[in-house]
Design goal:
homotetramer; mainly alpha; Fumarase C, Chain B, domain 1; Fumarase C, Chain A, domain 2; Ribonucleotide Reductase Protein R1, domain 1; 3 domains; two-stranded antiparallel ribbon; two-stranded parallel sheet; 5% strand
């Protein structure tokens, strides 16, 4: 604990308000690693004796062991992990330990720990997003030619293959992985060496420390170094969008699991039942993908609020950055892992999917396009089909049940009932979507090649 | 644990995602209390035998003791506090315990616990807000006639008394207390008895349970009962506005504590120092009042997001309500208690305040009003004073140092230098604000009477 | 335009950034009304001559006419509506107009306009929420005994009546109406008379102005008067919760309109079609109820952010309050009106609803409760039914198709197949929910009486 | 207007709710450009006759002229800009115009317009951020060696050069520019050709259209193409962080402009005065940089809310994306331009800055470091200086006024008064911060080289 310039002890409520050890101890590995690099640098530059550096490194080794096995002796006055580690080092190496904080401040120390943490969690989020994308690709391949109604406005629109639908999520996750990679790459410069805010009074070698800790450069402005929380905002932004993607996936699985849709079921391993309704099989994990997304962007909005209007350099408000970050990291990790496991064990009901996708109304565009191919302008063709649909709806029949003469009449002679029924015959509607990126099997197979190439790159 | 209709055990990641015991055990007191009332009602209505009710009540007494002393034996399968309590009751009273969940569902049980919790925390937030208002009134009275520059746009505008400035915060906190009272009053109807969603198959007496648990009525629609999270949104809305008020107070104390302002200092008991700058005395608690406010409204935005677009009735997403609520409750409680302690121990520097408030420019409105009292239209008077100010700024002098002839000239003969200097003489500017709610001492004394009356009502 | 103390004209980008006339002119009615009351008060108190007050009132009358008919001559220098009105009054009544701003500041003027506006829009939101509640009650009565599956986790849980389900929304809207009433009541005190921040140098009569403008009191602290934006936060909080309710309603209508559910259809007057799929009938209005809710709470989060950490008293940041408020007001008004029209013209498909509600699995709780009534503990009964369900699911049959001997065996002799099938026979499950607030017709009829009483009070 | 399958006209409230023309007409340039590319492709692929393509292109040329000069004849039924353009093209080229929508849907059309828009605004935000960074560098160079107290917790901590402080903002803006560049790069793939959701029934050449419109590839999955709003979230995320940076800059300028700090003044061209206090010079633009930031992240939170839980593919909710985006774009553009102009015209008060930076307490770290260089461990040295500070504070004197014997005594003989006073002599504290990124002039000059290199790259 610091020898303070104050004579009165801290108020207990103040101590509780100010406390960060309960959450920042999570950073201990980074704190130990940076202290090792810092001590080595101090000795190399002749700022502290080599012997002191050795003693510090030995003490830090012991601290690492204690923290990793849970035997670290926290003390009452440890207000954060940085102080706790330094205090313990000084207990173990009394004289040398007192030199560890030379040419360093808690301000640059904290942001360095957090930078290393963000880099690591961004990489692991990237990896988890890629894992889920990979699982989605696998499930897509296993259901390559299973039809499914595609929806707009939750109204059946045009049939697609289930593989095509699932691959849409794979692409989202691949973009998420790319975003996390950019977040990690954004943490390229070492803040350590900025001191409290102005730089330090010693001839340090920041590039050496940067190299030791895996940074490619150093933050060029000491004031910026200790004031900047951009990497946390970057992580939270990427995590928010990823969580929103997962919320869409979760919402669809919930919907598909309803009796009315009946398209899919989660495995029993991913379901719960009811305290009073024994028949219930609830897709809780899918619901929680949806329900946890706002938590992630709530943290982002809150952290923007924390930083908003703050004068440079460090202000205590910034201590609030960590809990927002940590909870978002943990929430997203759990979401990604759960989505992976649940998706991998989904079972689909081919009969229900096929029946739904066979709805004739889904072929309306195809009828219009047939007229276009026969030379009618698209807008006119659209109008003809709208009239056919209105007739069928008002009669309560399907398109293929329309009377032959009415088909001719409503299409102003451009369409006969045989041609209409031929288009409406199942199957052609999917396979006719031959355009690149479309749902025909040929197109989906091309897409699968592309997505696998993208997957291979998504872990870099 | 429920006997499930499932054959496969839950996936470990699913279990972690779904877990709520880690946070909902905080509701145990309410869960025990409602179970007691429910058991009594079941026996009164003849739904279970009186002997079973007695056995349940005895078991619940033991559960209460175990939970309050920390000896409650949680089991591996306890997925939430409701299941844990029921499981333990059934261990203690095997046959009777199995009847406790008759005519009840986890859905109405959870919302009842939360309703009771919200009612309690709204009352305690009300009380803490009133405490802080009371402290502010005390500090205001102790600095009744200490002048301070009033600011708009952070520019000195007109002088006010420090008491008047501090009372502005007291009024904010009184409004907060009123809001929390409305939140508590809003939790007037008992949800229990709604069953899973549709009501129950038994002739229950919900009014009896309501009276036992301190509700004045029952929720009139069973679907609404289990779907509704309004009271949490109400609490979070009130808490957000209260936190925003505290953030303004914190920001002012931070600013007043700067060397440049030098108006106030927090007590050493509410300050911290620096790891490398021994001269620092940092007003961390004031900064954290500012830095923690976004956390509270982050939770509100997140919970609106959670509920957004959810179909009726219960969805698992709603499990996310509790952590947002709990963290907001704890954060706000700590903020209010810390604000109270810190404000009570603030010390102000009368000399600095007086020097700042004596800035002649602060009297510009008073000069204009003198011209108005002499018959000039306010807009013209404003223009005259603007010319005097421009002259003084361009000469680098004060208003009272302006040359006599220039005063006459710039005022088009409506003002002579003697009258100008007389208005500028210290003191009159504050005491001339005689309007109701204004800063003259007479008005502040009237205000103090009103604020004390309001304070007395603020705990009801 | 003010005679400034500045010599350089404003930068064009600054002028655009600072401009508020484009949105605050919406407040003109309040500005004119408060100016009238202020002028009358000034004359009554002898602060300005009665003749000047008359001239000002005549000019204000002309201004009102010009603004209401769109002929008001805005001038290049009008930076806000307050300045525009005062400038025009001074054009029309040159000497007297210059006295209008006596004992008043733009700071207290703006908050007074906004207070009056919030009071009005809170009352009209209250009224629109009550209108929608009333419409929902009407639609509920028209479908009193139409069955519908009730859902938890979007899984069919227990059948309910459609009337009961729709009434859940009526109760939500009634709570919204109450919240808006509280917002309006919260705007009880007149800010005008606070001056810039410190009160004014004149012996004004704020109570007179308050009475003229419909306030029951005056803000007791002039600093608080000009710094306070609570009423806007209150409105936005109430509006956010109301919008979230509407988003749930919208989401259900979207879902019900899908082919898979097929429970309801919006009227053609509330639907759109597709640019290329002529068969589509899209429930856009329902989707927009869902999609516009985040806009409302986005404004709330943003305004909390604006006020966060601001020192007292007025800061220019607070100019940002109005656009957030206005857009939320307009968005919510459109949502409520649209919901009303769309709900009133919904058509439900009784056959589909009945078929869905007849799903035997929905009676599982009732089977368990039968066992309870025969003396089995609820937990054991729940277990028995879970086994029956597991058997039926694994055989792919319904509960009533289970073999007689298996029913006896799985129920450990407590249930015979005849009794089981009797419970499963359609209808009884709804009517057995006799508890208060439950879905039996008797209970719903009682509820309808209560909701109508509540409706009658909801406009007060 | 579409020929609808509906017989009833749209409700007026529905029409208002659904309307997007009022805001989406902003996209017209992109809509015309993509229509041109699409028409050319259709002809190249033989899907429409070359003559029709020519007629469409001629009509589109006329439409572009009409829209750019404001003479475009909007019609009552134009519900969005896409329909308006197609309707007008069809008026001008009746038969050919009806073929323009072949192999295209409004769904892929809208996202293509928005993708092009996002790409453009991301580039212009990048450019404006770089402009502001450049201005900051210029102002920094003009105040290279002006001292300023550096603050932590708003307490004076260590002196820095004003140039160094301003460069911290330049680095923030450079990171912003990089983020916007990544947003623009992220919009690399053309959505057009996805059709409504499933691809189209024609053999289109999406790569040709992509090349025409400046995309490097095509979206590989048609469902993803029409469902995806990532690029808007990416823009809003980058804009939020940039706005938060500007809010910090604004807050500091507000603070510096106060009488108490007196460090800087905005130009009269960037200031406003008061309606009743003629002496006021208010830094409104700086306040609005602070007050407008929450508006930007409010839009981000709202858009995450809109997309949250939406099933694939297009839902009407997504129409809400545009107003959030557009207002954020306009707000940020105005903020960046205003910040640039205001910063460029700031004037600093060297005398006040120097006086503040000469505060002896700012040298406390340097005294400690002197002891370190004499061999004392840093922690011990920190303790010695804390004792010296406590002594000075309790005596109300400066460090250099401490009695010689007390200096020796409190430092346990490691420090004499002469050495102490020598360190305290002005100037050395800044120049001793020789570390890379520190505030010594030598380090700042190196930093200036780096920032200029970065600036040169920031527009790519």
């Amino acid at each position: 604990m610091l020898e303070q310039r104050f004579s009165i002890p801290q108020d207990e409520a103040f101590r509780r308000l100010n406390d960060s050890l309960s959450f920042d101890q999570r950073l201990w590995e980074y704190d130990v690693a940076q202290s090792e690099a810092h001590a080595r640098m101090l000795a190399r530059q002749g700022i502290i004796p080599a012997g002191d550096s050795d003693a510090i490194l030995a003490a830090l080794g012991r601290v690492r062991a204690e923290l990793s096995e849970g035997s670290f002796p926290f003390a009452a006055g440890d207000e954060d992990i940085h102080m706790a580690v330094e205090r313990r080092v000084t207990e173990l190496a009394p004289e040398a330990g007192g030199r560890l904080h030379t040419a360093r401040s808690r301000n640059d120390q904290v942001v360095t720990d957090v930078a290393m943490f963000v880099r690591d969690v961004a990489r692991s989020s990237q990896s988890r997003a890629a894992d889920l994308a990979s699982t989605l690709v696998g499930v897509a391949e296993a259901h390559l030619d299973w039809p499914l109604p595609g929806y707009t406005h939750l109204q059946r629109a045009q049939p697609v293959y289930l593989s095509h639908h699932l691959l849409a999520y794979a692409w989202m996750l691949l973009r998420d992985a790319r975003r996390f990679a950019q977040v990690a790459e954004g943490v390229s410069d070492l803040p350590l060496g900025a001191g409290a805010l102005a730089g330090v009074n010693f001839d340090t070698d920041r590039e050496f420390v940067a190299a030791e800790l895996g940074f490619s450069g150093v933050v060029e402005n000491s004031i910026d170094a200790v004031s900047n929380r951009d990497s946390l905002l970057d992580y939270l932004s990427a995590a928010s969008t990823c969580a929103t993607h997962l919320s869409r996936l979760g919402a669809e699985i919930v919907m598909w699991s309803s009796s009315e849709f009946g398209f899919a079921q989660v495995s029993d391993a991913w379901a719960s039942s009811s305290s009073i309704m024994p028949q219930k099989k609830n897709p809780d994990a899918a619901e929680l993908l949806r329900g946890k997304a706002p938590r992630v962007w709530g943290h982002l909005a809150a952290l923007q609020g924390v930083i908003h209007g703050l004068p440079l350099t460090y202000n205590k408000d910034l201590q609030e950055d960590k809990e927002h970050l940590f909870d978002a990291v943990d929430t997203l990790a759990l979401m990604l892992v759960a989505a992976d496991g649940m998706v991998a064990s989904l079972s689909f009901d081919r009969a229900r999917l096929e029946a739904a996708a066979a709805d004739e109304m889904l072929a309306a565009t195809d009828v219009a396009d047939l007229l276009v191919k026969r030379g009618m302008a698209f807008r006119s063709a659209h109008g003809v089909v709208a009239r056919l649909v209105r007739e069928a709806v008002s009669l309560g029949c399907t398109l293929s049940e329309l009377r032959d003469d009415r088909v001719v009449e409503l299409s102003e002679g451009r369409l006969d009932a045989a041609a209409l029924r031929s288009v409406l015959a199942d199957g052609a509607w999917l396979e006719s979507k031959v355009s690149r990126g479309g749902t025909s099997l040929a197109s989906v197979r091309v897409q699968l090649q592309h997505v696998k190439t993208a997957l291979a790159g998504a872990r870099e």
